[in-house]
Amino acid sequence: MRKYVIMGVQGSGKGTQAKMLREDLDLAHISVGDIFRWHVRQHTKIGAQVKRAMAAGELVGDDLVEEVVRRRLGIHDWNYGFIIDGFPRNGRQAEFFMESYDIDAVIHLELPDDEVRRRVLSRRLCPNCGMDYNLIADRPEVEGRCDICGHGLITRVDDTPEALEARLTDYHAKTRPVLELFRRKEVVHDVDGRPPVDEVQSAIRKTLGLSGYRADD
After folding, report:
1. Which pLDDT does position 189 carry in this prediction?
2. How far, rounded to the nearest angstrom, does the alpha carbon of residue 160 sit from its chain's CA centroid?
3. Which whole-number Å values give the CA distances from 172 to 53, 92, 163, 176, 186, in the listed order?
4. In 3-state terms, what secondary structure has residue 142?
5. CATH, range 2-111+161-208
6. How is the chain split into domains, by residue range?
7. Would you list which residues are annotated within the binding site for ATP?
8. pLDDT digit string (tens) for 47-82?
9. Could you say which of 36, 45, 61, 194 is the most buried, measured as most Cβ atoms within 10 Å of its Cβ?
10. pLDDT above 70 (res 211)
11. Minimal CA–CA distance to 83: which of 212, 160, 189?
């Protein structure tokens, strides 16, 4: 069983890389962001709290994040392990996580702030089916329309320049220190997040010693 954490600033490709590992290694991909966005789409009480925080460019409160993670991991659908992204984002969350689970490795995707801005401000979302697009590398076939369901695409509420700047400031102030905390207790692998997706994935697998590995091998 393999248990990984993937970290990096917004737009670094955490979700994409985690999904690629999930498919080959049969890991459960646990995206805190995806869970929260589901709640926002379903107009739940949690969704209302998340929406307010996202619109202000703030991080969701620790108590709520920890509860969501605890519930998700409590499902125990991760026979071969899991890879979690979007958590932990500060020291308290990291301590909670390390006390509760044995982590095999932390994958840290490095990306300069200028590239983060370029990527994030080009993102679009289908509010109907949840499909993500990027106007730089993954444009829809019909401009402004989802390829899957045809619904009009929108900009995420947390993808405004103002919200992004607030998150970058918060990331450098709170989340980067988490990496240092992990480095004292866990194996942290720094991977350049700038190359094409497949190259980043190859670099991740190489540093984790997973080249050619599949869950059923």
Report:
1. 95
2. 18
3. 18, 16, 14, 5, 20
4. coil
5. 3.40.50.300
6. 2-111+161-208
7. 11-16, 123, 195
8. 888 888 777 767 678 888 888 888 888 888 888 899
9. 36
10. no
11. 189
C-alpha distances (whole Å) from 189 to each of 54, 56, 130, 133 are 29, 31, 30, 28
Which amino acids are annotated catalytic? 14, 89, 123, 156, 167
- 216 band by pLDDT with thresholds 50, 70 and 90: very low
Decide: residue 82, CB within 10 A, 0-12 exposed, 13-18 middle, 19+ buried. Answer: buried
Average pLDDT of the chain to the nearest whole number: 87
Q: In 22-171, at which residue ranges do the beta strands (DSSP E only) sit? A: 28-31, 81-85, 105-110, 123-125, 132-134
- pLDDT, one tens digit per residue, over 75-85 is 888 888 999 99
| pTM exceeds 0.85 | no
